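Q: Got a minute? One more chain.
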Amino acid sequence: MMAFTRRAMIGAVLALGIASPALAQDDGIHRLALQISDNNPQKMTTVLNVAANVTRLYQDRGEEVEIRIVAFNAGLHMLREDTSPVLERLTSFGQSMPNVTFAACGNTITGMTKKEGVAPPISTHAEVVPAGVVELMALDQAGWTVIRP
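A: Always. Here it is, folded:
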C-alpha cells in the first residue's frame, strides 16, 4: 500500500475543494510566504521580484494578497542594515507595498550576536520573530502557501 505524506494528503484535499477552515482561510485573500535562507544576492533579488510580481498580478485582478518574507540562517543578511545587498529595495517595499511584510529569525540574530559580539542591525521594515522556521510552519498551518524561490 502506498504511504501518503501529510503534505500530499493536504494537497489532495485542497485539489478536491473540501479543505476545512483549519487548513485554509476562506476570506478571499491570497497569502504567500517566501523563504530566504541563503546569503545570495541573486536569490534575495528573486524573492523580492516574486513578491512584486505576485502583488501586481493580484492588484491588477482587483484581488487582495498578503506576502510574508521570512529570513533565517544566512538569509538574514537580506534584512541586515549593514550587509543587505537589497536594502534600498526593502525601503521601497516598505513605502509602496504595505501587503508585503518581513520576518527576521530571532534564533539567527542570537547566533550572529554571539559570533560577532554585537547584535546585527536589522531593518526597521522587519519584525523579529522567535524562529524563522517556526514562523513558516505557523503560516503553512494557517493556510498560507509557502515557497522557497
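A: The CA atoms of residues 59 and 65 lie 8 Å apart.
Q: Perfect, thanks.
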